[in-house]
Design brief:
By secondary structure, the chain is mostly helical. The protein is built from four helices and no strands. The chain has helices at 6-17, 21-29, 35-63, 72-105.
Length: 137
């Protein structure tokens, strides 16, 4: 499965719920937690990881600029930046894999048609049969 970006995930969430992401976020704030809020949270975590990757990649690019000297002090910054970049990539991979799997398991429900009958309510359960106090033999 190709790795999905937060933009791809946002598009899939919008397709699934039939509304723009901003509208879905506003709607989810007024609702009890559910699948929509879980998907939006996963999307936010994925987007944050992508921003973190961009930030740490840019920072490392600055640190290893050809005109810049790399001394003992800079080495610790390089190692820290590399570790943080690796962590952000791991978070992105985990979030993208999880949210893609959840979205793949869901399908948009077809819109109800006016010709379809409404389901009948089930009949009430029969009252329990009273047992006599005498023992049966």
């Amino acid at each position: 499965m190709p790795q999905l970006t937060s933009t791809d995930i946002a598009g899939r969430i919008e397709d699934l719920y039939g509304a723009p992401l901003a509208d879905l976020e506003a709607h989810a704030q007024d609702q009890p937690p559910g699948m929509l809020s879980a998907l939006l949270g996963m999307h936010d975590a994925l987007a944050l990881a992508e921003r973190s990757i961009d930030f740490h990649r840019d920072h490392l690019t600055q640190l290893i600029h050809p005109e810049r000297q790399i001394g003992p002090h800079e080495v610790s910054h390089l190692l820290d930046g590399t570790r943080r970049l690796a962590e952000a990539v791991a978070v992105r991979e985990a979030q993208a894999t999880s949210v893609a799997a959840v979205l793949q398991s869901l399908a948009r429900a077809p819109a109800p048609t006016s010709a379809s009958p409404t389901p009948a309510l089930p009949a009430p359960a029969a009252p329990p049969v009273a047992q006599s106090a005498a023992r049966s033999r």
